[in-house]
Amino acid sequence: MVELQSILVTSRTSLRQALEILNRTASGVLIMRKPDGTLERTVTDGDIRRLLLEGVSLDESLEPLVGTAPIVIGEEYSGAAALELMNLHSINHLPVVDDTGKVIEILERKHLDEQILLSTPHLGSLEREFVEEAFRTNWIAPLGPNVDAFETAVADYVGAGCAAALSSGTAAIHLALHILGVRHGDTVFCSSFTFVASANPVLYQGATPVFIDSESESWNMSPQALQRAFDHAVATGTMPRAVIVVNLYGQSADMDTLLAICRRYDVPVIEDAAESLGARYKGKPSGTHGIMGVYSFNGNKIITTSGGGMLISDDRELIEKARFLSTQARDPAHHYQHSEVGFNYRMSNILAGVGRGQLEVLAERVASRRAIFQQYCQGFAHIEAIRPMPEPAWSFSTHWLSVITLDPCLTGIRASDVIRALADENIEARPTWKPMHLQPLFAGSAYFPHADVSVSDRLFEQGVCLPSGSNMNAQQVNKVINVIDQLFNRVDAA
Ligand SMILES: *Cc1c(COP(=O)(O)O)cnc(C)c1O
User: Fold this and answer.
1) Parallel, antiparallel, or unpaired: how do β-strands 269-272 and 280-281 relate?
2) pLDDT tens across 422-441, in order?
3) Going along 220-352, which residue ranges are E strands?
4) Is the separation of the CB atoms in 209 and 442 below 8 Å?
5) 324 Cα to the center of ligand 1, angstroms
6) Cα separation of 60 and 118, whole Å?
7) Phi, psi (5° rounding) for residue 408?
8) Could you give the C-alpha distances from 264 to 250, 257, 260, 261, in angstroms and in order?
9) Residue minimizing CA distance to atom 8 of ligand 1
10) For ligand 1, which residues put their CB under 6 angstroms from it?
11) pLDDT of residue 435
12) Per-residue pLDDT band at 1 (split at 50, 70, 90)
């Protein structure tokens, strides 16, 4: 941002002085003030060049520039309106003036054009080396040393017995269900408050999902709702073949409580940790609590291979089965023989190279995302209606996404208002996941709410996911906070 004090001139300033200030501050623009302190106009390099061409000398004053009304915008501007005005007049700087005509800020096109996105890939320094090694050794085709090394590195990182690198997190969930024998006619319990990729593989297997609500402490699966779903399953003789517990936005579900319930009925748990790699539950890494765990390396996740996933387990047999199924289920024979249906779900050796590099910076990425969440918490501390996503004592969240809810009892501002205000400033924010039991795709599915009220319905209505990429700087986080703060100030004043 341009320091206003350093670029002030008057009509008596000489061309030479003006050029010196432009040169020193690299601001690209000067503010010419009237004697009463209000704005006369802005002055650019171009304006001075034109004066010189007209024959005005360097030691003469800027006086000839006086008399053209400046293009300005009022305090209540939006980024979109400011940009429109700049485009209309082909200018790159726009003064913001208060009611009295005094300049309070200069907007620059390059800052308005800048987009702040929800969560973008953030590469480290080693990815290229691992990928180049794959090229150098012509190990491009599926499998190879990067795949093996990436599997071992992920398994070591989270303390799992072994891991299978796959083409996506969705593929990992699909294989986990397949391996557990989920078939047509079976039911599978699944968190309702999640991304659709958690539940789609249930349909791939021809099975029927039953959706379980969240609790408000972690926003993840409600043990209370899960218990009622099991009570119902016992009463109707429809025991689920598996339970998919999702860890949302970088935070683990209350695994001990959920696992204890599932163990009572001897039903295995798949932990969908696609969004929570790097998080911990009571000190133990997210994803390692169920019989199998799933990670995703999709482009928006905390680390990425541009696309990819991992299935982990302490049970080597399960992972070997996953590797077998993910490479077309080829029998151990020289000729191409197949006894069961297989899939083409393996990760390539190139992408595994990216993954190896990314894993090296995972701890840094977690620290950055947690710091961004902290900055938001501090920035919103004075706005009572804004509640950051809670973090229970047993949770170490990565805050993959920083999510807030808006209390409708305390504000008329809705999630969609916040998202729109941010969009006007070129900032990408998103609603929270629309729960599965509200999706047309799953219309008619059974659903067990937490209590009389559905927690996930509320989180969907009130939630906003804020830009959280680990490559955001503190100024960008501040910009997001300021836009939301201004929205609240405007509405409070109205
Ligand atoms: C991203 C995601 C997945 C799927 O991972 P992909 O690698 O994109 O297939 C599954 N579950 C949740 C909760 C996710 O956020």
Assistant:
1) unpaired
2) 998 999 999 999 999 999 99
3) 242-246, 269-272, 280-281, 284-285, 292-296, 309-313
4) yes
5) 22
6) 51
7) -70, -20
8) 28, 11, 6, 5
9) 298
10) 168-170, 194-195, 197-198, 246, 272, 274-275, 296, 298, 309
11) 98
12) low
User: Can you tell me the distance from the alpha carbon of 419 to that of 463, in angstroms, rounded to the nearest whole number?
Assistant: 10
What is the average per-residue pLDDT within 391-405?
98
* % pLDDT > 70, the chain: 99
CA distance 144 to 355: 14
Instruction: From 306, 309, 260, 251, select the one nearest 282 (Cα to Cα).
Output: 251
Enumerate residues 6+ apart whose C-beta is below 8 A from 90. none
Q: Other C-beta atoms within 10 Å of 78: how many? A: 17
- Asked if residue 96 lies in contact with residue 77, where contact means CB atoms within 8 angstroms, the answer is yes
Atom of ligand 1 minimally distant from the CA of 198: 11
Q: Say what the pTM is.
A: 0.85
- Alpha helix locations (H) across 211-340? 223-236, 255-264, 316-326
Q: Is 462 helix (H, G, I), strand (E, B) or coil?
A: helix
Q: Are 278 and 243 in contact (CB under 8 A)?
A: no
Between the CA of 198 and the centroid of ligand 1 the distance, in Å, is 7
* pLDDT at 334 (0 to 100): 86
User: Tens digit of pLDDT for each residue in 313-360?
Assistant: 999 999 999 999 999 999 988 889 999 999 999 999 999 999 999 999
pLDDT at 68 over 90: no
pLDDT of 43 over the 90 cut: yes
Dist. CA 140–CA 137, nearest whole Å: 8
Q: How far, in Å, from the CA of 408 to the mean position of ligand 1? A: 30
Interatomic CA distance for residues 493 and 76, integer angstroms: 12
